[in-house]
Amino acid sequence: WRRFIIRSVSPKYTMGSICFVQRSDGAVLLVRHSYNTRWGTVGGLAKRGELPDSAAVRESFEEVGLSVVLTSEPVVVVEPVLRRVDVVFAAAPAANAEWTSARPTSPEITEVRWFAPTELPELSREAADAWIALQRALADRS
Q1: Alpha-carbon 15 to chain mean position
Q2: Predicted TM-score (pTM) of this structure
């Protein structure tokens, strides 16, 4: 009963997994979603019971047709107003993947482009928060 009561009165959050895919030359893959004019990153909601790392890899392939490998430990970004938790990873194209083949393969993605990390376009708020959190974590770990 205790668990039931706690779950019934606790706020509910969705969990998403996203990844910033970076090529060996440093270029970062960004996408434009059909519902946002600013740039974002590949990712989305994890399926019930799906681990965040698996969700990030799956979403990358589903949205842009690119197989990726995760290259960092996860960073968690909590958005209390939207009641969302994003698990953020750095990633790279998989060894067998051709990064030039990245293209929209989902109706929610309208454009795919690689950007130099020093020349990033205007990011969506969610992507900007995730990018900052990931860069801080990567700097702290080096």
Answers
A1: 11
A2: 0.89
Selected residue with higher pLDDT from 112 and 81: 112
Contact between 43 and 124 under an 8 Å Cβ cutoff? The reply is no
Q: Which of 72, 60, 76, 70 is nearest to 112 (CA)?
A: 60
C-alpha of 78 from chain center? 13
Note the residue count of the chain.
Answer: 142
pLDDT of residue 46: 93
**Structure token digits, residue 17:** 């997994």
Provide the token pair at 27. Answer: 């270029």
